[in-house]
Amino acid sequence: MLISIEAIRYGTGYDAAGRWHEGRADLRSAAELEQDEQLIAPARGAVCGILLSGILWVGLVAAVRGLLTLFR
Asked: What is the reported pTM?
């Protein structure tokens, strides 16, 4: 589920002198959020994870087969 956030506040807090200040709002429309390139990041991470785990399994199988041929 994707929840659209219209405004992101940042910079709220205390400054170096100890004074409180409100943060600025960075407004983004819902259309901009849907077209954002970062929305593809979870899919890219899943594909990379599958590829890297495949490489790991191939390496493990090769290592086990190599060890089995040594101890025959």
From this structure: 0.43
